[in-house]
């Protein structure tokens, strides 16, 4: 299975549909909120959400959805990346609730070779996240520095840093 792409493998206009989706649980949402110290009651307090908000229930924190989509895109987009350079834009379009399943896809908007180093380039992509019913919930654009084939070849090929298995000596 491929993990990431080299600069040469990206084509402007190509869309990668990330698989599988992820069903968001209350545990996922609460843990992310607690780890990131986002204690807003909209995400953590069911009574508050049910009785004082337009949604009538807890809303999954948007940065979790963004992080989930970013992670989903790694095998297709940035698995070989040298660096994530920029998050150009990030929009939360619709709320996500506990029990929703998130799917994502990324489209290559542009790409260009580095002007300072001939072994890499930049890929400009847009990722869209949507729920099980197709509702768009999150969209973001980013720029990723990715290696060219010569960069990978100089560092061990497709799986740089992978050790060679050393078999134990035969008993005898």
Helix/strand-derived category reads alpha+beta
Estimate percent helicity: 25-40%
Average pLDDT score: 94
Which stretches are poorly predicted, pLDDT < 50 over at least 5 residues?
A: none
Distance between the termini: 38 Å
Summary keywords:
172 residues; alpha+beta; 5-stranded antiparallel sheet
Describe this structure in words.
- This is MaoC family dehydratase.
- Pfam families: MC_hydratase.
- InterPro entries: HotDog_dom_sf, MC_hydratase, MCH/BMMD.
- The chain is α+β, with helices and mostly antiparallel strands and 172 residues long.
- The chain contains 5 helices and 5 strands.
- A 5-stranded antiparallel β-sheet has the order 1-3-4-5-2.
- A hairpin with a 4-residue loop joins β4 and β5.
- The radius of gyration is 20 Å and the shape is globular.
- It starts with 14 loop residues before the first strand and ends in an 18-residue tail after the last helix.
Provide the fold topology.
Blueprint: E1 15-23, H1 26-35, H2 41-44, H3 46-52, H4 62-78, E2 83-92, E3 101-113, E4 120-131, E5 136-147, H5 149-154
Antiparallel strand pairs: 1-3, 2-5, 3-4, 4-5
Give a brief description.
26% of the residues lie in helices and 33% in strands.
